[in-house]
Amino acid sequence: MIPDHLFDEGINNSLLQKDMKHVQQNRTVYDRTQRDYEQEQRDLLSSQDGDTCEIHDQFYRDHKLLLVLFRALAVMPITRSRPGTITFSWRSRATMYAICFYIVTTVIVINVGYERIMILRSIRKFDDYIYAILFIVFLVPHFWIPFVGWGVAHQVAIYKTNWGKFQVRYYRVTGENLQFPNLKLSIMIISVGCLLLAVCFLLSLYALLDGFVLKHIIAYIHIITMINMNCALWYINCKGIKIASQSLSECFRRDVDRECTAKLISRYRYLWLNLSEQLQLLGNAYARTYSTYCLFMFVNITIAIYGALSEIVDHGFGFSFKEMGLVVDAVYCSTLLFIFADCSHKSTLKVAAGVQDTLLSIDVLSVDRPTQKEIDHFIQAIEMNPAVVSLKGYAHVNRELLTSAISMIAIYLIVLLQFKISLPKA
């Protein structure tokens, strides 16, 4: 996050004071417009002030429900401990609840996992063995919650807090509060949908797959809901970045059309850099969470597709219940993986596109030399800070991730099918 003093220097155009000195000397107090006065009042605001952040943090108010649900699932025990600040503490009530909830659900998961392992040990056929592993794979995400949830809670709290700071700075520069139309309603629908989708998915597996016992659903329900909610959380974060990018570019074009000055370009350059940092911080804060999320999806899709292909090889295109269940699993996980990669791709496209179009549309011959310099600096800043969501360098989250996943899954499927063909038939 750009420190407040550097941001203030940037938006106040301190780097161009020498170039603009002759203009300021000729300017009197009577030249001040109402717009200048309002700008001066906004510049008195500080993004470090919690009460100010609380007033302008519309993003937190809109997606608060999602954070509450994550606390209820004991996945992300972060809280709004004081105005404008989200924190994580091992001694907080939210963390104590998360630990207790996790212990109870761990007992249930271990009991179900033990039964699944006993079934696995009794299997001798290779295809049935791979098929039985699928039920155990679905239990694995429960055991990495302390690592990918609580372990990154501090970084996530910083990311969420920085959203409030960014919105204060957005108001200082544009004169408008950042709004997220229909985001709150979307989150309510998505949250209910995640739970219903988890229930429907598990019931479909129970109806279609042999060996999936109805009583075992109690061990899987919170895991599948958590997986759905993680996808929803990423989608909402990316949508927030996308909306902020579109709003920033619209305000930038409006202000440039009204008055294109070096000071204006400089202010928007620092605001855009702040937004670009938010995008980078999103990937860094959730790196553990979504790295393991992708690995889980890759393994699950590979096993499900192999199981379905194996059934087709052995019995032809009969579309038995087992094949349909495996196809449902593969399609379900593939859809979640696609949403995860696609929403990142769409949000990154919007970060620089609108601002860059406005900069390139400015007639540089009609503006003064300091403004030309600022336009060059802004374009260079965009080129040196490409809009990419990186999971701490392990992977870039965009549509290329999907093509890489397809290639990797195809390789493993070929190996498994070759291994199957080489086995002697019973």
Automatic annotation (TrEMBL):
Q: What is its main location?
A: membrane
UniProt keywords, alphabetically: Cell membrane, Membrane, Receptor, Transducer, Transmembrane, Transmembrane helix
Q: Name one Pfam family in it.
A: 7tm_7
What residue ranges carry the coiled-coil annotation? none
Q: How is it placed in the membrane, per its record? A: Multi-pass membrane protein
Q: What is the annotated localization of this protein?
A: Cell membrane
Q: Name one GO biological process term.
A: signal transduction
InterPro entries annotated for this entry?
7TM_chemorcpt
The keyword Transmembrane helix is assigned to this record: yes
Membrane-spanning parts: 94-114, 126-145, 185-208, 217-236, 290-309, 321-341, 401-419
Tell me which GO cellular component terms the UniProt record holds.
Answer: plasma membrane
Q: What does this protein do?
A: Gustatory receptor which mediates acceptance or avoidance behavior, depending on its substrates.
Q: Per the similarity annotation, which family is this?
A: Belongs to the insect chemoreceptor superfamily. Gustatory receptor (GR) family.
Protein name per UniProt? Gustatory receptor
